[in-house]
Amino acid sequence: MKAGADIATDMETTGGRQDTKEVILDAAEKLFAEKTYSAVSLRELTQAAGVNLAAVNYHFGSKDALLIALFRRGAIELNRARARLLREAEERAGGGTPPVREIVAALVLPAIRYSFTSTRLALYNQFVAFARGDGPAEAREMLDKEVGHLQRFALSLARALPHLPQHEVYWRLHFAMGVQHSLYTDMKRLETLSGGLCQLDDLEAVAARVIDYVTAGLEAPYTAKG
Amino acid sequence: MKAGADIATDMETTGGRQDTKEVILDAAEKLFAEKTYSAVSLRELTQAAGVNLAAVNYHFGSKDALLIALFRRGAIELNRARARLLREAEERAGGGTPPVREIVAALVLPAIRYSFTSTRLALYNQFVAFARGDGPAEAREMLDKEVGHLQRFALSLARALPHLPQHEVYWRLHFAMGVQHSLYTDMKRLETLSGGLCQLDDLEAVAARVIDYVTAGLEAPYTAKG
DNA sequence: CATTGACTTAAACGCTTGTTTGAAATTAGC
DNA sequence: GCTAATTTCAAACAAGCGTTTAAGTCAATG
To answer: Which of A72, A217, B115, B210 lies 20 to 30 Å from B82 when distance is taken between CA atoms?
Structure first.
């Protein structure tokens, strides 16, 4: 009676439309980002997706499992894009260390790009923070695995900024993630603050802005104390 | 039967202990930040606070009203501290424009300080983002009023960075808020990433770090496109 | 000492939640 | 074109939610 909700990570295998699952994921991504995981009811979600109430439990097993599947889809895609850009930058440097600005671009561009090119994964960052306290334990474990991917960037940055102690590199990378985060969080506040002057419309311009800012922060002089 | 939950903003007036309200606010602040507004039930909250289930509705009127009261308490305190530091910096500049670094310090220090000195308001920033989509409409309106306080900083920064177009100042101020935000969000990830090397322990060191980073970002060269 | 008011308490309220069910509809394999 | 597996559907489920109620406690007041 029950369908295996775990195994079916593959796509075209079952000949079936595989449509409903994607529709649900897209709607969940949108709503979870707009509100909160626990603030979105399955009735609201399924209605927005145009599917039956029971569809979520049938295809994913539970609401929690839906969140995990959603997070997995987003994380895999984002990390893959980041890793690719970083690898390309390293190859461009011919075995040497790429300049800070290019490492930053590899870190930041995929997230910005996805946030523009629409729906899927668009608001990935926004629920990372909440998943930590709100979501199921399995989601939290996945977040920790996420850290592994950031390590590559920490390493690359440490090599490009040899005058900085290691822990300072970690801190500044952390701040960089915060800046990235701000692209999905509180954009409404920025729009209000600027009287509509600032908006997420021109991808290139926004990307350049973020990269300028983050690069400057990473390259800031180190006024050490402790 | 019902007590006025609106008027009693004063403190020592009623002779009564005024204890329960504060206990509830403190517990709510902690839990709402750890999880999410809608993920914390009143039963969980009142049990953590050690008060009766009905206490929230009696003292605040509703769960929504509790959130608003909580936000108000935090926002007032934080904005007051920021405004005072900015005013002092401006006085120190003798009517002129304070250096960027001092404006940044005025913006950033209060939040960092509160995050160390404990409980009250400690996690203020963390629920700002969520309140926008999750919380009641009244909370969202308060967030918009919040913007007014940031305008003072935008103005001051624009004067200190006259070569930047106005909208760029807004963007960079927005990023600065994101960096600040990262102090409350994803700290667990930073600890994991750094293998425990980076932690929120030394206030002065963390403050210097944040100010360095944000100042450098604000003063970054402007590579304009659009 | 009785009375008033603010506060606390346990129990219950109606309602929404995530989930399950069993039958109907759809699709694939032969 | 039949069979069997898969997917959809409306209805119901128990559990948990925010909220209300009415009786209870306690301190201060007249």
So the answer is: A217
